[in-house]
Input
Amino acid sequence: MKLNKITGWLDATLDVASFDDVSNNGLQIAREGDDVRTVAFAVDASAASVRNAASAGAELLVVHHGISWGGGIKRIDGGVYEVVRAAISANIALYAAHLPLDANKSVGNNWELARYFGLKRITPAFSYHGNVIGVTGWNPHGRKIGVCSGGAGEFAEEAKKLGCDLYVTGEASWGDRIAAENVGIEMICAGHYETETFGVKALSKAMRKALRVKTLFIGRQDERGAR
Output
């Protein structure tokens, strides 16, 4: 399948253009040639995830955390150099989707987490950079739960104002923890990485079904094993 067809599907499925994001979402590293037979998925664009994608025969790596943020890449050195070198050496393209993958109702991190927790009456909540990316919902015991993956401890107070009994995120600063304690809301920090595997895996499954292309997920254990 052609690379531009796959990236076009990603752009449309995730509605990438509508997000004001700190990440420069979309294709971040191109490749020589445009045929793609296998697409690898990972949470982070690390040199290890690129090498594992190459070992698995992938021509494209789709990630939640890419390498181009804000004003873009100013210097290709350090960790960015290692990722770029690994991608070019293996001729692997890199595509990133940050907030669009957090917020998507069909495959997003937060909607997938809410479904995993068995929440009902799921409603969008928690605005970041003008983008509503998290959710609230009700568990089978009648408790209202707020969910926002990654490093979103800052929304604990807002979750309390929305009537939530519990707020789930990936990680929080000490100040965010104290703020949650002060307003009397229980906050669970389930891991930045762990909470953001849900959308990546769901997107991989959706692409495999929609485009009939081979997909695979690269986890942290796989990344640590790469040299």
